[in-house]
Hints:
This protein is α/β, with parallel strands linked by helices. The strands form 3 sheets. Strands 7, 8, 9, 10, 11 and 12 form a 6-stranded mixed sheet that branches. A 5-stranded mixed sheet has the order 4-3-5-13-6. The protein is built from 12 helices and 13 strands. 32% of the residues are buried.
Amino acid sequence: MTDRLPPLQTLRAFEATGRRLSMTLAAGELHVTHGAVSRQIKALEDHLGVQLFRRMTRRIEFTAEGSAFFAVVTRLLSELSREAESIRRRNETTRLVVSSGISFASKWLTPRLHRLMARYPDYDVHLEVTDIEIDFATSQADVAMRYGAGRYPRADSERIMNETVSPVCSPDYRERMGGLRTAADIASARLIHEYGMKADWTRWFGMMGMPAPAARGPGYSHGSMSIEAAIRGEGVALGRSVLVAEDMAAGRLVALFPEARLDVESGYDLVYPMGHRDHPRVCAVRAWIEDEVRQFKAAVDAWGVIGSGGAV
């Protein structure tokens, strides 16, 4: 049956031409050339085997067949357009898009997202993972989770969690390196670096009252990657307390200096468009994330993996 239907582009050209009774005006509306519209009309006439317009010197007019066909095409295209808009609006009503940075999504957010879906079954939850600065003017996201200092252009934000950083490594690596009991021991170890991290090894060794060793060891663009490298036994990483807590509780990582933790200016923020604080989608995500953070902090305290003064 479908192979007997006229191509959709010929129907669009026919409808625009019939509504305006001008191929030139139809071409301008459809952003194509007059010749393109003329060819589409001719293709439709060939497909149907009838003439739809009479071409006169300075104007066109419907034939009887063209007038009858125009009424049908107009009605069907209008119904199709209305139904498409209805589906689009239903999708916009139920779709909830959460944007997250890569490391936070992989190490913390994704394993918990199923509880957001269960809590709000009427929403179709979608996760967008990117470290690009959030711009709600171009993004489809309703809310975003970002690691930063709490300032985001053309957006409002609320702090979800603060964090600290301190040296971590795998139990096997610590054993191979003789325990790594002092800052000098760590200085002689293979150090894992996270690019762009302000709370870096230079700051940590400065806090310990000694110069940082010459840069060496692997470097990674994301905190989650440096953590996985430490788990594989590639060296010692400066672990972010939020991202490493569960790996430490599971025994995949150990803290070398639980009390020697660097505070950092950045933290995890809930970000949303300006003026949208009370938007239903923002309220839904806020209520869910507050419960998740509360449970996470209670678990961290029970695990005892952060140490006194640690922030999550």
